[in-house]
Specification:
By secondary structure, the protein is mainly alpha-helical. It has ten helices and four strands; from the N terminus they run αααααααββββααα. Helix 3 crosses helix 9. InterPro entries: Prenylated_rab_accept_PRA1. It is a multi-pass membrane protein. Keywords: Membrane, Transmembrane, Transmembrane helix, Transport.
């Protein structure tokens, strides 16, 4: 796959739609073969490839750094966990899976409430939705849950007096991710895996027509 022709917006869109349930890459693969990029275009291509291929590893690294920095602040740890959950709702697959499990659980106690939490019906024209599909969580647009979660996280961080410390830990984790994505050379396995996932995505879109 030619990552030079892939825009940053396309990478963000792919990270939002791709499955995040895949297991992280092994440590031996994650910490092998480092080298400086030879040009700016090579750096951008490598950065986009690694962010997509090692997405699960980077997410775990982010949570680990935040947890390690906030180990003495229970409220801040809870805020970090709530932030991670809120950001996870931005992924289509996670939001849809969470929504289905919540509705199934609530159905055991109140079938009427579970029916109300179902997403509204979207009109379909020639096999495709008339408008861009909106992801719902418990009957509400997922952005509502993201904003509520981030607001609650901010309150927990502010209460624990660790807001600046959280920002410092978060910035450190982002710099570590950026450094790794910059120096880790994309291997053949990463390229083949990208081709395979790209084919699956195209095939899934074709089957929905």
């Amino acid at each position: 796959m030619d990552w030079d022709s892939v825009a940053a917006e396309d990478v963000i869109e792919a990270l939002r739609e791709v499955e995040w349930s895949t297991s992280p890459r092994s440590l031996a693969e994650f910490f092998s073969r480092f080298a400086f990029p030879r040009s700016f275009s090579k750096w951008m291509s490598r950065l986009k490839c690694n962010l997509y291929y090692y997405r699960t590893n980077y997410f775990i690294l982010l949570i680990f750094v935040l947890g390690l920095a906030l180990i003495t602040r229970p409220l801040a740890i809870l805020g970090a966990a709530l932030t991670a959950l809120s950001l996870a709702f931005l992924n289509d697959s996670f939001a849809a899976t969470f929504n289905e499990k919540m509705i199934r659980t609530i159905r055991h106690f109140s079938p009427h409430l579970a029916a109300k939490m179902r997403p509204p019906h979207m009109p379909v024209i020639r096999g495709r939705s008339a408008t861009r599909k909106t992801v719902y969580v418990c009957g509400q647009p997922r952005l509502v849950f993201v904003l509520i979660g981030l607001t609650a996280s901010f309150v927990l961080w502010f209460t624990s007096c660790g807001l600046l410390w959280v920002l410092y830990a978060f910035t450190t984790a982002l710099l570590m991710i950026l450094l790794h994505a910059t120096l880790r050379t994309p291997n053949l396995k990463a390229r083949l895996n990208t081709f395979r996932e790209e084919f699956r995505a195209v095939w899934r879109n074709y089957s929905e027509l």
